[in-house]
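Ticket #4471: structure export looks truncated?
Reporter: QA, pipeline team
Priority: medium

Steps to reproduce: submit the single chain below to the structure queue and open the exported record.
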Amino acid sequence: MPASPQTALPSFRSRIGCDARSGYYAVPRRYRLHLSLSCPHCLQIAVTHRLLDLGDTLPVTLLSAVPDAPDGGHRALRPLYEASAHQYRGATAAPVLSDGWTGTIVSTHTPDILRDLARRFGGHGPDLHPRGAEDEIEAVGRLCEREITEAAQRAGEPGDDPAARDTALATLLNALDGLESRLGSRDHLLGDGLTLADVQLWVTLVQLDTVHRHHLDAAAVHRITDHPRLWAYARRLTAHPAFGSHLDLDGIARRHHAHCRGEEGAGAAVQIVDWAACARPGTVRHSG
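Actual output as written to the record:
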């Protein structure tokens, strides 16, 4: 049942404008990102932030790998949420883009944050959101979310409906086949350089191997592995410092085990990528 207007949680989806006439506009060190690197949405933002070389422009506060609040969020974010919405009682989830001038939240919506980083702050890095590629980037995001992540989750769900699991696995494999074909003639998903589409896909592949694989059988994992160009692409991006330096394998594992209630499958023993070996030495994080 949908929430009533009185109990509906507020939506934090303001945008960064291009000049002072907009309420939020790009000013160095005005805003702050609050990220947990074990969260796939936060990981996308962290990689994008590094690719755009925004360390001096947009500070980052790193949060615990495993959310520590009873609501499934982060205790450290409670003051921001309460300052942003009167009598806020919802989850204090990351990611958060906050405004230091007002002490409130600008946005918690990952696609908007990614676009604003690329369009409003991205003057020193690659053009991650090129004009004319908007629809393609959104299409890759939908494919990653629905045909890879959601399909992998359904394919690994326990229960007495093998037909549903087979259908989900077929959806997943079809998506991987399409990506394998696309990468046969190029190094990146769109054009000649990195875009947000590559960031989204890399994080999705990390999650597929480090999280969703654990609930699949060995045969399914071997079929997923049988996409050599796709996984070579994942390894190549992992060697890039903007990607590998934010890879918290320990944190991802602890977050998964803290919240997962599914059954472990035989595929858990079949690692697809040695992510730590692919990253440059000393760049993979080990959260405490």
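Status: closed, not a bug. The export was complete when the record was re-opened. Leaving a note from the reviewer for reference: Residues 134-155 form the longest helix (22 residues).
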